[in-house]
Structure formats: structure tokens, C-alpha cells
């Protein structure tokens, strides 16, 4: 633990010493902004300060200060989240939220599920998702199946695109750096009384590194190309009617390797997500929202220039939600969700003709606030899945904010489930009789504001039990329901803003994630790639009015890479530095250094990660 603290704190102490002198004369104080609005936790807007859930909101401003280019890199700084990736620059990534599986976290863009029905666990790698045109990312930890159905056992990550503001603005930027990396981006945004809009397009090209670790004698650079397009349009059709439309498209091409071995394999990936919604205030006490969305994925593989396989998947959804507001004391949210997943495979290893599965869902949630600061939330949901039938989930939550002391106590208990993917049901390795994975869990926490809300402390204990886990049977070479797992631990964080030009954030998570399959070979063993200890810290300073400097560290503790817990992956600490300077009102220069200490490390066994990387660029705004 002492080594962990040193790794996290010492770099910040050094930077503060260097920068404190020129800014010490400034007396302006800052306040941590806790009035942020969160929509994902309850499917309607509510102040984050009063939410009973464990929520992290990462804003566009925070992303820009750290100069994060991908959603995956942003999520590495979130309490309770560990990212496993088959090397940087597009390598497949898995998100472990509170120790649960990658399949147990629901990813959405503007409220539309982003997944790949023809992937083994039904998830697409999020490595291709850039941070372009993002207003904020909301991470809700804990079971959220009551409002979102399948896949939300560990939590929900909702990526919300930018809603244009102010006068029309156009920007373009270019950046270059290590590993022969070049990035170009342009965008536009704006708004008037009736319409708001934003759009961006970016291109990334890099020769990268060998994804199979170069320490094993692999020297070939594995290239990565990515084009990202994002757009959003919102309109106020009348005093009571609003409409919105958003689209996000990613197209990437990557040379990838096997475990520890250079291979001449290429993957082309296309991901398109479209969302449209209509909101109407029927009366002052009744609002309804209609949402339609679709996500399409396509992965095409070639080996040594020869076709190897094409995997296509599509997810369609329709939702009709009603919000009833009763005398500012009670809010009832109820509605209907429909989801259809479809996909097919053409592969040298065998084809899958198009398969479809639909789910019809009914949900209701009651949020009661008998007096200011206290809220009770109760909800239930019924999902009717085409293959395994009905599944019921429940959730209860309580929060009380004592305004005078700035103390919030909160807790929640919920059940969740995850439906088997199309691939697990209908591939040659699947079983159409698979049952859904089921969970139950709770968390309790306390948030404390101090010193006039310049400091925010947070501590949360969580526990989740999962039954009927879908696992791989090495005897039959098929998926089957057998597993049971339990995760528990602590999430702690602190935000400190003593002055307007100085902000410090830090977090630490302790997680125990174990196989609890009764009578199983590995009962009591830790799940692979789940570190007990993860931590991070960020120091942001503005030594000059136009200069911003951010120093960020991430610590990942030891974790097992095999189910028998006989082989460990070593811990590592990464230090990243980013800075930007506004030359004038239309020109900005920026740069960053990734892996500042040139740490040699691995996220996954025998997959290499980049050493120190130096990047710089300019941005012009008109």
C-alpha cells in the first residue's frame, strides 16, 4: 500500500512544487460543481447531488484538460472500472465494472445500446470510440436492469453527444507525434431559439507498435486507421414539443496479432449508431418520450490477404416512456421497451444464417420525495425474451442529503440479468436452451462536502452475486450455464478545489471478485484480470490565465491471468502529462506526453503496450 501511495502522490507533489510559486499570489477560490444533472440513473433529469446511485459524470471540459482521445482512455480514470486491452491503438478492450464481466456493462450512445450480437459475449470493443463531439459520459455503477433490461448487471455507461450552444462556431485541428501518429479533426456547432446542432469528423493514422509484445522478439509495427463521424440536431418544435436526432459512425482498420505472436491478420470494423426522439409535455404533470434507435456492426477479417470471415450484427430499439409529476413530491416513470437483435456470420470456420431475437419489456419506477433532501426510489421491470421467456427485476434506493452539513447518505439494492448473446445461442458453439445470467446486489455510501463545498469525499461499499453464469465447456466445446461469482469491495474518491486555478482529484478501489461455483474446480479462486487494487489521481493547474497543465496517474495492482491463480500479472503505474495554451481567441496549441516515465508494462499477457509517447498540435476556432 505504501508503494501504491508513493506512485500516485509523488508526481503530483513535484508538479505542485514547481507551479505553486507563480500562482501563489492569486487568491480566487473555487467551488466543486456538484449541481450537474444526470439523466441515465433514473431515465429523467435529476441533480447529481441528490441521486441515490453511485454515479460519475465526466464532462467535455475534463476530457479536454487531460487530452483524452478515446472513451476507453477516459474510463480508466473512473472508480470501480478496470480496462483490459489487447494493446493500444485499437486493440480489443474489455470493461470490468466492479469486478463483473465485460458482458455485464451496458454501453449506450445517446441512450441507444451499442453492442455486437455476433460477438461471443454480445459486446463490441469500445476501443474505436473517440471522444469527439462528446458533451459528457455518465457512468452508473450497480445493477440497472430495472430501467435498462439485459446487460446492466455491473452498471451503465451512457455517452452523450454535444448539444450545440451559442453562435455558430467552426474549428479544425491537427496533431502529430510518436509512432508516426497523425490526427486531423474538424467540427461545427451552434444554436438559436429553435434549433441546436453539432457535428465533427476526425481521422487517425498510426503505424503503432507490435501488439504481440516486442520483448518476445516481435518487431513488426501493427498499423491502425480510424475515421470517426458524429452529429446531433435538436429542435424546439413548439412550447411543449421537442425533437432530437443523433448519429455516430466509426470505421477502422487494424493489423492485429495473436497472443505473443506476430500474425498477418487484418480487421475492418464499421459501427453506426442512430438515435431519434420526440418529447412532449402533454400537461404540466404528464410528459411522454418516444425514442427509436439502431446500432449496426460489421467486422471483416482477412488472414495473409485471404478472406477469413464477416460478422454482422444489428440492434433495434423502440421506447415509449411516460413521466408523471405529482405535486413536486412524487415522480412516476413507466413505459414500454422493445428490442430486436439480429445477425449473421460468413466464415471459413462455418456460417450462421441470419438469426433474430426480440424482447418486450414493461417497467415502472416511483421516486418519492416526502421533503427536501430525502428520496425513496422503487422500481420493477418485466422482460419477455423470445428464447427463455420472462425475467423480472427489482430495485430500491434511498438517499438523504443533510444540507447544513453537506452530508449525503445513500444506498440501493437491485436485481439484474443478462440474456445470452445471439452467438452463444445459435453458433456451432452455442445452445438455444441457455438461461439468462441473474444477479442481486447492493451498495451503501456516504458523500461529504467540506469547507464551503471546496472538498468532496465519497466512500461506497458494494457487493454483487451472479448466478447461472454462461461459461465455456472444454469437454463439449459449447457454452453452458454453470458459473456463480461474487464481487465486493470499496470505492473511495476525493475532489479538492481550494482555488479557481487548482483542482485535485484522486480515487482508490478495492475489489474482490471470486468464482463461487459450488463444487467447482476453481471455487474460491479470484476471477482472471481483476486487480484487487486500482487507483488514480489528477492534478490540474492554470499557472497563467491561458495556460492549463494536467498531470494524471493511474495505478493497476497485481491480478491473476489464469483461473487456477498460479500466474500473476505485475502491477504498474502510468503517468501522463497534458498542456494547452490559448495563443489568442482563435488559436490554441496543445500537447501531451503519454507514459511519461516510459514504463514497460502489459494489460494482457504477452500483448505489448507503448512506451513514452509525445504528441503536439494546434487548433483553430472561427
Task: Give structural notes.
The protein is mainly β. The protein is about 5% helix and about 60% strand. It is built from 5 helices and 33 strands. It has helices spanning about 1-25, 60-65, 70-75, 145-150, 420-425, and strands at about 35-40, 45, 55-60, 80-85, 95, 105-110, 110-115, 135-140, 155-160, 170-175, 180-190, 195-205, 225-235, 240-260, 260-285, 285-305, 305-325, 330-345, 350-370, 375-385, 390-400, 405-420, 435-450, 455-475, 480-500, 500-515, 535-545, 545-555, 560, 570, 570-580, 585-595, 615-620. The strands form 5 sheets. It has a 22-stranded antiparallel β-barrel. The protein is globular, with a radius of gyration of 24 Å.
Q: What is the structure about, briefly put?
A:
The protein is mainly beta. It is 7% helix and 59% strand.
Task: Supply the key terms.
disordered N terminus; 33 strands; mainly beta; 22-stranded antiparallel beta barrel; globular; 622 residues
Give the end-to-end Cα distance, rounded to a whole number of Å.
49 Å
Characterize the biggest β-sheet. 22 strands, antiparallel, barrel
Round the mean pLDDT to the nearest integer and report it.
Answer: 92
Given the C-alpha coordinates, what overall shape results? globular
Task: Tell me the total number of β-strands.
Answer: 33
Strand residue content: over 45%
Number of helices: 5
Unreliable sequence segments: 1-29
Over the alpha carbons, how many angstroms does the gyration radius reach? 24 Å
Structural class category? mainly beta
Helix content: under 10%
Amino acid at each position: 500500500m505504501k508503494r501504491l501511495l508513493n506512485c500516485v502522490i509523488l508526481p503530483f507533489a513535484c508538479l505542485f512544487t514547481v507551479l505553486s510559486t507563480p500562482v501563489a499570489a492569486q487568491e480566487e477560490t473555487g467551488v466543486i460543481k456538484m449541481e450537474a444533472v444526470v439523466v441515465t440513473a433514473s431515465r429523467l433529469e435529476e441533480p447529481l447531488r441528490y441521486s441515490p446511485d453511485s454515479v460519475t459524470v465526466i464532462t467535455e471540459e475534463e476530457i479536454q484538460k487531460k487530452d483524452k482521445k478515446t472513451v476507453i482512455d477516459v474510463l480508466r480514470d473512473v472508480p470501480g472500472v478496470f480496462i483490459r486491452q489487447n494493446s493500444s491503438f485499437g486493440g480489443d478492450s474489455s470493461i470490468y465494472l466492479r469486478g463483473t464481466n465485460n458482458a455485464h456493462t451496458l454501453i449506450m450512445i445517446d441512450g441507444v445500446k451499442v453492442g455486437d450480437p455476433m460477438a461471443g459475449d454480445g459486446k463490441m470493443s469500445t476501443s474505436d470510440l473517440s471522444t469527439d463531439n462528446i458533451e459528457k459520459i455518465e457512468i452508473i455503477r450497480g445493477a440497472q436492469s430495472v430501467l435498462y433490461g439485459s446487460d446492466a448487471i455491473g452498471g451503465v455507461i451512457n455517452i452523450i453527444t454535444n448539444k450545440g450552444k451559442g453562435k455558430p462556431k467552426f474549428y479544425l485541428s491537427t496533431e502529430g507525434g510518436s509512432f508516426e501518429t497523425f490526427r486531423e479533426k474538424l467540427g461545427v456547432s451552434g444554436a438559436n431559439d429553435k434549433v441546436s446542432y453539432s457535428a465533427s469528423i476526425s481521422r487517425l493514422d498510426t503505424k503503432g507498435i507490435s501488439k504481440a509484445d516486442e520483448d518476445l522478439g516481435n518487431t513488426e509495427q501493427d498499423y491502425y486507421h480510424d475515421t470517426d463521424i458524429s452529429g446531433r440536431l435538436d429542435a424546439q418544435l413548439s412550447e411543449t414539443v421537442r425533437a432530437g436526432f443523433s448519429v455516430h459512425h466509426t470505421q477502422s482498420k487494424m493489423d492485429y496479432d495473436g497472443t505473443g505472436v506476430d500474425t498477418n491478420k487484418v480487421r475492418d470494423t464499421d459501427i453506426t449508431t442512430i438515435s431519434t426522439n420526440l418529447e412532449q409535455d402533454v400537461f404540466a404533470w404528464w410528459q411522454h418520450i418516444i425514442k427509436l434507435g439502431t446500432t449496426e456492426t460489421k467486422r471483416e477479417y482477412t488472414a495473409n490477404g485471404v478472406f477469413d470471415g464477416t460478422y454482422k450484427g444489428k440492434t433495434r430499439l423502440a421506447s415509449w416512456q411516460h413521466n408523471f409529476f405529482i405535486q413536486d413530491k412524487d415522480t412516476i416513470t413507466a413505459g414500454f421497451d422493445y428490442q430486436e437483435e439480429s445477425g449473421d456470420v460468413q466464415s471459413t470456420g462455418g456460417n450462421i444464417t441470419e438469426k433474430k431475437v426480440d424482447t418486450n419489456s414493461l417497467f415502472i419506477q416511483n421516486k418519492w420525495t416526502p421533503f427536501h433532501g430525502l428520496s425513496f426510489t422503487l422500481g420493477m421491470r418485466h422482460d419477455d425474451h423470445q428464447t427463455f421467456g420472462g425475467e423480472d427485476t427489482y430495485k430500491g434506493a434511498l438517499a438523504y442529503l443533510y444540507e447544513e452539513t453537506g452530508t449525503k447518505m445513500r444506498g440501493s439494492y437491485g436485481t439484474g440479468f443478462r440474456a445470452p448473446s445471439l452467438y452463444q445461442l445459435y453458433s456451432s458453439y452455442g445452445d438455444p436452451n441457455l438461461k439468462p445470467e441473474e444477479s442481486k446486489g447492493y451498495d451503501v455510501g456516504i458523500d461529504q462536502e467540506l469547507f464551503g463545498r471546496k472538498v468532496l469525499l465519497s466512500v461506497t461499499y458494494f457487493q454483487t452475486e451472479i448466478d447461472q453464469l454462461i461459461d465455456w465447456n472444454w469437454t463439449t466445446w459449447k457454452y453452458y450455464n454453470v458459473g456463480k461469482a461474487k464481487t465486493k469491495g470499496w470505492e473511495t474518491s476525493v475532489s479538492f478545489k481550494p482555488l479557481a486555478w487548482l483542482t485535485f482529484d484522486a480515487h482508490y478501489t478495492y475489489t474482490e471478485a471470486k468464482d463461487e461455483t459450488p463444487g467447482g474446480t476453481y471455487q474460491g479462486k479470484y476471477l482472471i484480470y481483476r486487480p484487487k487494487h486500482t487507483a488514480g489521481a489528477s492534478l490540474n493547474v492554470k499557472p497563467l490565465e491561458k495556460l492549463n497543465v494536467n498531470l494524471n496517474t493511474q495505478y493497476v495492482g497485481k491480478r491473476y491471468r489464469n483461473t487456477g491463480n498460479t500466474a500473476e500479472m505485475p502491477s504498474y503505474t502510468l503517468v501522463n502529462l497534458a498542456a494547452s495554451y490559448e495563443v489568442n481567441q482563435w488559436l490554441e496549441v496543445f500537447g501531451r506526453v503519454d507514459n511519461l516515465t516510459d514504463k514497460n508494462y502489459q494489460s494482457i499477457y504477452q500483448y505489448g503496450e507503448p512506451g513514452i509517447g509525445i504528441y503536439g498540435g494546434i487548433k483553430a476556432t472561427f
